[in-house]
Specification:
By secondary structure, this protein is of the alpha+beta class. Helices cover 42% and strands 19% of the residues. A 5-stranded antiparallel sheet has the order 1-2-3-7-4. Strands 5-6 form a two-stranded antiparallel ribbon. The longest helix is centred in the middle third of the chain and has 27 residues. The protein is elongated, with a radius of gyration of 21 Å. It starts with a strand and ends in a 6-residue tail after the last helix. The structure holds flavin-adenine dinucleotide (FAD). The site of flavin-adenine dinucleotide has 9 residues, from helix 6.
């Protein structure tokens, strides 16, 4: 249950976590020199208070370590979130697998409106099929060029230049609940790109399972990080 499949070939796996709601209340109560071993109703109220008043630091004494497999263009958006630690599969040291993101038919979309206020609408079936076929052909040609260069003895770090942002990558991401909620507020949101949003939904489900009271307070606070 700590692994959620995302898109056709990706996943979010909560590899390890040191995270619970009690750490939030105890981090707040250390100011008064007290500590509790179990949550009660008053503690739930305290978490709501901390969230509402934006006392953010008690939400930092925890850690979630995720293992993620996603297209490079999704990771490129993800790593903009600076509060957290990343390590990624190296295209210099390892041969990158032939695995690419091809959107499902219903995810091939057109953008309508102005920059900053786009809406995205499904294209007709014929266009969707043509798009998928064009992507597959382009991916196959890129990967064939990559493999031909490797066969010629070209270094992986040089040959990888021909690989597109739709190829799959893997990384570890370690993050605390405060930065995680900031990520969710921006990426599990209407204006986020659909693909990273699917990953953010998986991250949110895993976060909710570990810190349900904090998650509820996040929702009640309008999905805004403290
Ligand atoms: C819908 C959407 C569209 C986007 N479009 C673009 C785009 O067109 N071009 C583009 O370049 N980026 C774009 N971004 C990325 C965006 O600008 C942020 O880089 C990204 O969302 C990370 O947010 P963050 O800085 O809050 O997160 P983090 O880096 O994790 O930071 C968390 C919080 O820590 C604090 N913080 C971190 N670093 C600093 C700092 N140096 N100084 C002060 N406070 C800091 C801030 O309070 C910040 O909110 C987009 C993001 C979204 C969600």
């Amino acid at each position: 249950m700590d692994r959620i499949d995302v898109l056709a070939d990706g996943f979010v796996h909560l590899d390890s976590a040191m995270a619970d709601d009690l750490s939030v209340v105890n981090a707040a109560r250390v100011s008064f020199g007290t500590r509790r071993d179990a949550m009660d109703e008053r503690d739930e109220g305290l978490i709501g208070f901390l969230m509402r008043e934006r006392h953010g630091t008690p939400f930092e004494h925890n850690a979630f370590r995720f293992h993620v497999r996603c297209p490079i263009f999704v990771m490129r958006e993800w790593i903009r979130h600076r509060i957290g630690s990343f390590n990624e599969l190296s295209g210099r040291y390892a041969k990158i697998d032939e695995a690419f993101y091809v959107p499902a038919l219903e995810d091939v979309r057109t953008q309508v409106g102005k920059p900053g206020a786009y809406t995205f609408e499904a294209v007709d079936m014929e266009t969707a099929e043509r798009t998928r076929a064009a992507m597959e052909a382009s991916y196959a040609a890129s990967y064939a060029a990559y493999e031909a260069m490797l066969a010629d003895g070209v270094a992986k770090e040089v040959a990888r230049s021909v690989l597109p942002v739709g190829i799959m990558t893997e990384f570890w991401w370690t993050v605390n609940a405060r930065a995680l909620m900031n990520f969710l507020s921006l990426r599990n949101a209407e204006h986020a790109q659909r693909e990273i949003r699917r990953y953010a939904e998986a991250v949110e489900a895993l976060f909710e399972a570990r810190m349900p009271v904090t998650h509820r307070a996040f929702l009640e606070h309008g999905r805004s990080a403290p």
